[in-house]
Amino acid sequence: MTFMFYPIVGIADQVSAKKLKVLAVGTPRPHADFPAVPTLEQSGLPGFEETAPWVGMLAPAGTPAAVVNRLGEEMRKSLAKSETKERFKALGAVAVADTPAEFAAFLRKDHERWARVIKTSGVKAE
Question: Residue-wise over 91-104: b if at least 16 C-beta within 10 A, else e?
């Protein structure tokens, strides 16, 4: 049996064509496009943290807060549009319209998590 972890973005067509079978999703809740597919935790792997790749918009350090907030506001407006939602859904992507402060908190948490993984595993850059 061939097995892989893969982001949902990019496989929806393969799943529809029955070329791939999704056994579980690595998110805290079932994915909207695959509601019958259990999460890894529901499949017996408790404590599995989400590892879905993410994309975010970042600005250079020192960018004025007013500029960052305006960019965030415009991004949230764009993500709220029905055509944007439809396009994301067609790609199998999940759009999250966080505020700049929420995204900064997410980045800190993600950085801390991966720092723990690196330290615990002992992996070294070569």
Answer: ebbebeeeebeebe
Residue 25 CA to its chain's centroid (Å): 12
pLDDT attached to residue 1: 60
Dihedral over alpha carbons 51, 39, 120, 113 (to 10 degrees) = 40
Q: What is the pLDDT of residues 68-103, one digit of tens each?
A: 999 999 999 999 999 999 888 887 788 888 999 999
Predicted TM-score (pTM) of this structure? 0.70
CB 100 within 8 A of CB 86: no
Q: List all residues 6 or more positions away from 73 whose beta carbon is below 8 Å from its beta carbon.
A: none
Q: What is the CA radius of gyration of the chain?
A: 17
Q: Tell me the longest C-alpha to C-alpha distance in the chain.
A: 52
Could you state, in order of their start, the residue ranges of all structural domains in the chain? 1-53, 56-126
**Euclidean distance between CA atoms 32 and 34, whole angstroms:** 6
Angle at 92 between CA 40 and CA 31, to 5 degrees: 30
Amino acid at 63: T
